[in-house]
């Protein structure tokens, strides 16, 4: 990775039962710890425009989730539990503990946000502050897709049984993933992404094991992730807070903030959840860091 993407950050390889995980860490070692979790189809590089600024107040850890970037990409189990957000949350905890942090703040985007809220529901004592970028709960997402069969087609495609999506993507993986990025940006182009970050994304996209891993991630979304949400809903469980939900006005928030607020307050969000919207496509940390960063800074500071 070009050094200027994460100036002053150190690289860490952490061995866990599922393999070796990669993270970058920066900021004062005695500052409050904060983990940043990326989404699909990206890597920790998606944070390069805001992570350095967050080191002014935090010890920032940018982690490649299992199956993405430079972290392990195991085959997984037939029930897709290995790629469930519950298991991935446990791995985040294990990485953070290895780096010396038992309790920490968490900012997650897309799939990383799903890992984040599942971890916060399963182990509320771990999370100081939780920021969820441009998602609604997994159970709400599936309910939307059931009402609107044409919504979010990549969820259904990637969740198909192996090796159907793997073989289709594998025919020409880089154009497939690049088309998704274009589709989800506000501009409909790759212009919001730096060349260095795109190079890292492309490295990951070209690896068959990582193509399979991303499909397993979505198969878990259709199976154990949705089941975990439904079980928590039945028990009336809520996130402990403080919680920030930040959405893009040209993606999850394209119909306004009210539907997003209803999805969260009707499921897991506590009463004092902060809801914010920025002008952006889906990739808020790269498309509009100028608006995203101060919102995160205020939230993380408790103001």
TrEMBL record:
The residue ranges of the AB hydrolase-1 domain are 32-289
Q: Which residues form a coiled coil?
A: none
Query: Which molecular function terms from Gene Ontology are attached?
Result: hydrolase activity
Q: Which Gene3D superfamilies match?
A: alpha/beta hydrolase
Q: Which domain of life is it from?
A: Bacteria
Q: Which UniProt keywords apply?
A: Hydrolase
- Name of the molecule in the record: Alpha/beta hydrolase
């Amino acid at each position: 990775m070009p050094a200027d993407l994460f100036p002053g950050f150190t690289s860490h390889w952490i061995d866990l039962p599922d393999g070796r995980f990669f993270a970058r860490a920066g900021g004062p070692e005695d500052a409050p710890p904060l983990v940043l979790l990326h989404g699909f189809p990206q890597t920790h590089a998606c944070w390069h425009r805001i992570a350095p600024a967050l080191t002014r107040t935090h010890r920032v850890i940018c982690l490649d989730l299992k199956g993405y970037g430079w972290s392990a990409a195991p085959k997984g189990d037939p029930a897709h539990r290995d790629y469930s957000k519950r298991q991935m949350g446990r791995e985040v905890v294990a990485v953070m503990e290895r780096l010396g942090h038992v309790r920490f703040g968490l900012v997650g985007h897309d799939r990383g946000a799903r890992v984040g809220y599942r971890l916060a529901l399963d182990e509320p004592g771990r999370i100081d502050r939780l920021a969820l970028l441009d998602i609604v709960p997994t159970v709400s997402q599936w309910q939307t897709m059931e009402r609107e069969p044409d919504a979010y087609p990549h969820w259904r495609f990637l969740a198909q049984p192996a090796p159907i999506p793997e073989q289709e993507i594998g025919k020409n993986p880089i154009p497939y993933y690049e088309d998704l990025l274009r589709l989800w940006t506000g501009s409909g182009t790759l212009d919001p992404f730096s060349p260095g970050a795109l190079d890292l994304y492309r490295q990951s996209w070209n690896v068959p094991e990582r193509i399979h891993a991303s499909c397993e991630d979505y198969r878990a979304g259709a199976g154990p992730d949705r089941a975990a949400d439904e079980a928590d809903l039945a028990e009336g469980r809520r996130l402990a807070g403080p919680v920030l939900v930040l959405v893009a006005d040209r993606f999850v928030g394209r119909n306004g903030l009210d539907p997003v607020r209803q999805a969260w307050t009707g499921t897991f969000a506590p009463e004092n959840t902060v809801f914010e919207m920025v002008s952006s496509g889906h990739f808020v940390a790269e498309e509009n860091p100028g608006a995203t960063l101060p919102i995160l800074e205020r939230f993380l500071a408790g103001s």
